[in-house]
What we know:
Elements: H1 7-13, H2 24-36, E1 42-47, H3 54-60, E2 63-70, H4 73-82, E3 88-92, E4 108-112, H5 120-133, E5 138-145, H6 156-169, E6 173-179, E7 183-190
Parallel strand pairs: 1-2, 1-4, 2-3, 4-5
Antiparallel strand pairs: 5-7, 6-7
The structure holds S-adenosylmethionine (SAM).
Residues 7, 18, 20, 48-51, 54-55, 70-72, 75, 94-95, 112-114, 117-118, 122 line the site of S-adenosylmethionine (SAM).
Domain Methyltransferase: 47-136
Protein name: Class I SAM-dependent methyltransferase
GO molecular function: methyltransferase activity
Amino acid sequence: MSGPPDFDAYYRADPDPWDVGGSFYEQRKRGVVLAGLRRARYASAWDPACGTGHLTADLAARCDRVVASDASATAAALAAERCSGLPVAVGHRALPDPPDEDGFAPDLVLLSEVFYYLSDPVRAATVALVDRLAAPAAELVAVHWDGAPDDAWLSGRGAQTELVAQLVARGWTQRIHHDDEEFLLDTVTRGAA
Ligand SMILES: C[S@@+](CC[C@H](N)C(=O)[O-])C[C@H]1O[C@@H](n2cnc3c(N)ncnc32)[C@H](O)[C@@H]1O
């Protein structure tokens, strides 16, 4: 890999490049993510790579508000449209840039199919940002395809392992490891979450 893929070009060529809306893999993944959430409700969730916003919209049913963003302006616009009428704010922003809301302290963070697309320094900065922003009692859910995308820096397994280890090294606790046929899900919490 020499640089990040042009995600906006993917979305300009196809408004749903990973068939999030149609594939059973994605439908089932969303169901497993929601089933794995450890609390009935969250005050504020952060979904910093929301893509088309399908999972963002599902999360909104469990959260008072969701702050979502994506590195692709096209994806962010699609997610904003999908989530209109829901308590979701969608922006165009690339990790590791923080949300531009003062005092935002999410008690739920979702990293779905994005960590493996981040370069070494961006992954390190993203972990530091999560640790800095998250509420004292917070839960992070990471879910990635258990394969190695051609355009990614890491495999899904490598991404999950690194992310969990980095958060555990910062005092977080691993609560769930779900090793599915096609994807991996880990839940890591801090404090009383
Ligand atoms: C495979 S899609 C997953 C979308 C969504 N999380 C889901 O699970 O349906 C990967 C997404 O990550 C976004 N992305 C890649 N690098 C990013 C970055 N540095 N910051 C924010 N989003 C990024 C892409 O634009 C794309 O929408």
